Amino acid sequence: MRADRAGQKASRHRRSESDSKDHLYKPLTGPKGALGRVMNNRRKFAKLRGAKRVWAVASVHGEARRLERLHGALAPRLTAGDRIVYLGNVIGRGPAVAETLAALMRFRAAVLAGQHSFACDLVYLRGGQEEMWQKLLQIQFATDPAGTLEWMLDQGIGPTLEAYGSSVHDARRHALGGAVGLTRWTRSLREAMRAKPGHNELFASLRRAAFTEDRALLFVNAGLDPSRPLEAQSDSFWWSSAAFARIAEPYGSYRFIVRGFDPDHPGLQVSDHTATLDAGCGFGGPLLAACLTPAGEIVDTLEA
Asked: N or C, which terminus of the chain has less Cβ within 10 Å?
């Protein structure tokens, strides 16, 4: 797929920090190898410990006002034992990327101020938009920076550039200007991220998937290849939407899988073993959230 090629281009000469640790999944012997795999899994995946219910929030795509309204409706519904999973694509496309991230952090602080709440009760998944952003920050290593950038712009990365003080025009100019200019430009983007309190920490906390403690419920951004184990999904989490639609049986121990992005934006779509939450937020549609029991039953929904 073109998405896979773009990712390969952006990381051919130097793999990203997360990808550089993929060797830990190769067969290793001894306790050091086993410990490495466990630690790497903790960085990639979130375990929802003790969850009595899980609220899943669909792709936000920079729609800060819709997210604020959804948070307003969600707050009084939260009860002890609830967990919240944002299913990725928080940034990109919409008009208010920075404001969306600020809304996430405000709501997190409000939730954690409550009794019996912990940081691990809220999980943020890495979506296709966040994955593209991380690739863009090292685009100087792509074999075709201009082509890679144009693909990213087609996917809606422009508003995220603007959130960090750049523009589509600047991006195109630097993409054609050589590696030195690109390096200076991506460095300025990183500095702009550091200048916004909490942004670097939020991006560092992103996980590729989340699951309940009994591994019965699985939460992903957009896709899943059922022929591959969870640890080997790689870009499938973001670009294998078609494969997700073909899931017709449990995926290992996971009896039910929830995703927050579908290119067709069907709204709430439920099958025997999957649920899609995407009514097109960022594309003119509303933002959805759903509350699930550990058995995968949807007991409440929100729309903003």
From this structure: N
